[in-house]
Amino acid sequence: MTDSPDDIAAAPQAPESLEPPPSGRSSRRRLLARAMVKTIAAYDLIGAGDRVMVAISGGKDSYTLLDLLWEAKARAPFRFELVAVHLDQVQPGYDGAPLRRWLERFGAPFEILREDTYTPVVAHTPAGKAYCSMCSRLRRGILYTAAERLGCNKIALGHHRDDSLETLLLNLFYAGRLQAMPAGYTTDDGRFRVIRPLIECAEADIAAHASEAGYPILPCNLCGSQDNLRRDKMSALIAQLEQDNPDVRSVMLSALKNVAPSHLLDPRLLARGEADEVAVPDLPQPAKPGPRRLTVLP
Fold first, then answer.
1. Which residue segments constitute the domains of the chain, with CATH numbers given?
2. Whole-angstrom Cα distance, residue 61 to residue 83?
3. tRNA(Ile)-lysidine/2-thiocytidine synthase N-terminal domain: from which residue to which, for each copy (predicted)?
4. Per-residue pLDDT, 14
5. CA geometry: angle at 208 spanning 38 and 33, to 5°?
6. pLDDT 10s digits, 276-287
């Protein structure tokens, strides 16, 4: 179920300035909303005229993303469109009815796709191996196709701060590269901009908010595949470090914004200068609020 691009474009125009948040909002929701809008402004993730497909899995992160983006849209000083897309991958025991009912009540345009990725993933994954890699590739292709059909130029994902930090450690310890999750990137074919508005939000805050909001969470292990054990190890490592330094997650996030290329060993960085500290040329700088950007919610 979704509205056509023409139908959505005809919706009432958003107000010229952001209004104060509704009374009664929880402090945690306000915290998440402020962090999300600040990230959107800092990395210029959403601008006037954008049509954003919000991938909603039925987990706490994607519910929170859609909920907060819909609220921000209503108070943005420019117009942009949102459409939620959920993919039913025909996994055994799947029941998407609670999600559908929530989306119908929520009011945002949405579409639920049904594509059997479970059967080919099981058939082509060696015994004892996790399904995650192949499943992710198939899911991504389906979502990209949907985004093109729906006229979306951006795809919003619900990854948060802890996802990025765990990815940083996974790449450091197992892949031999310094790489985390960016706030936004352009797909290889140049068709879409993939954005992560919650990338600076703490998972614990999202989980607490999701519980308060009463989102109907769908199970995430229906395929029967084990969780990514390496990612679990990275999560446990961060939790262990947190016992000695309660601010370790915030410090790690700050490190991702404070890179000293001249102190690394990648020869490709030599051309960027010999100074002790060189700013990464393409690192987005916080943007001043303007008519094309969201401003931080009160």
1. 27-218+227-272 (3.40.50.620)
2. 16
3. 52-214
4. 35
5. 20
6. 444 445 545 544
pLDDT digits (tens, 9 = 90+) for 163-182: 999 999 999 999 999 999 99
Residue with tokens 């001249």: 262
Q: How far apart are CA 296 and CA 72, in angstroms?
A: 9
- Cβ of 55: how many Cβ atoms within 10 Å? 21
pLDDT of amino acid 295: 61
Reported as a pLDDT band with limits 50, 70 and 90, residue 224 is: low
Q: What pLDDT score was predicted for residue 17? A: 33
Give Dmax over CA atoms of the chain in angstroms.
58
pTM attached to this predicted model: 0.83
> At residue 144, does pLDDT exceed 60?
yes
Q: How many CB atoms lie within 10 A of CB 155?
A: 22
Query: To 10 degrees, what angle do helices 60-75 and 97-106 make?
Result: 10
